Amino acid sequence: MNHKNHNQHNQHSDMKMNMDMDMKMDPSFAKTMAGKHSARENHSEHNGYNPEGKQASDGAGKHAGHSTAMFKKRFYISLILTVPVLALSPLIQHFLNFSLTFAGDKYLLFLISSVIFFYGGWPFLNGAKNEIKSRAIGMMTLISLAISVAYFYSFAVVFGLAGEIFFWELATLIDIMLLGHWIEMKSVMGASMALEKLSALIPDNAHLLKNKDTVEIKTSELKDGDIILVKPGEKIPTDGIILDGESFVNESMLTGEAKPVSKAKGSKVIGGSINEDGSLQIEVRGVGGNSYLSKVINLVKQAQASKSKTQALADKAAF
Q: What's the CA gap between 165 and 157, in Å, rounded?
């Protein structure tokens, strides 16, 4: 599968998630974006993929308008239509040792296969068009080439050219490709939603200790070296070192550690973890892109964007 297509498809959601993280954890970014956001706050933030996967539309993406639900629907409809295509195909009848012939059977086979080609194959045909326009030939072009050759050659055979028809190969190839893209997009969407949940772990506000007074400020305004107070039951707003206090900290959402971890003076804490039962004074160490949570999110995104050796070889062969 062509991960580049799906990565471009998720570009809008990644940008939104990065902005959320940076607004919470990077003071300079927050100040820069404040004015821009107010000028466009009436504009929809969800023109692209939404968490329910009903539609995704990065306008410039090669999967613009595609969604997990769309691939699922096209797969099931194409799969149902494939059954009569297999039953009417001479080669399948020969393999299974049965005969199903009647007047106009080839034309019916052509009609059903045409629906599969144009309906089920549309995501690949459209993706190939976008790949060719952007001069980035990949798997979409290879799939489109295969199904187009099978369709138009079989079309010619039905209407008089000597040869064999390949409608059943066309239908099964489209079914397999739709299934593969559905599974892949479902996986990618799930990872993207998990990243959004991670970014939501950072609280909006923090208790800054300043001249022995406690001042509530936005997490985005914190700087390295600031001293913050985290009360029992609150989320720790950023990475840091404990200067005073003892407590158990729940890091399960970040590290997978099932039990709360004991923390005392000198212990490191991670932004987004939950302080259990004691008050902690923490010196801020790592904001914005230097935080543990930001690094985890970036690593996952890099893994999503990477291609296997097989995928890279396939794209190279297509080009």
A: 6
pLDDT at 314: 60
Q: Are 25 and 83 in contact (CB under 8 A)?
A: no
pLDDT tens readout for residues 14-25: 444 454 555 454
What's the residue count for the chain?
319
Domains of the chain listed by start with CATH number: 3-199+297-318 (no CATH), 223-286 (2.70.150.10)
Structure tokens at 76: 């099931």
Question: Strands 213-218 and 247-250: what pairing?
Answer: unpaired
**Whole-number pLDDT of residue 185:** 84
pLDDT digits (tens, 9 = 90+) for 71-111: 999 999 999 999 999 999 988 888 888 888 889 899 999 99
Query: Over the chain, what HEC string results?
Result: CCHHHHHHHCHHHHHHHHHHHHHHHCHHHHHHHHHHHHHCCCCCCCCCCCCCCCCCCCCCCCCCCCCHHHHHHHHHHHHHHHHHHHHHCHHHHHHHCCCCCCCCHHHHHHHHHHHHHHHHCHHHHHHHHHHHHCCCCCHHHHHHHHHHHHHHHHHHHHCCCCCCCCHHHHHHHHHHHHHHHHHHHHHHHHHHHHHHHHHCCCCCEEEEEECCEEEEEEHHHCCCCCEEEECCCCECCCCEEEEECCEEEECHHHHCCCCCEEECCCCEECCCCEECCCCEEEEECCCHHHCHHHHHHHHHHHHHHCCCHHHHHHHHHHC
Predicted confidence at residue 80, as pLDDT, reads 97
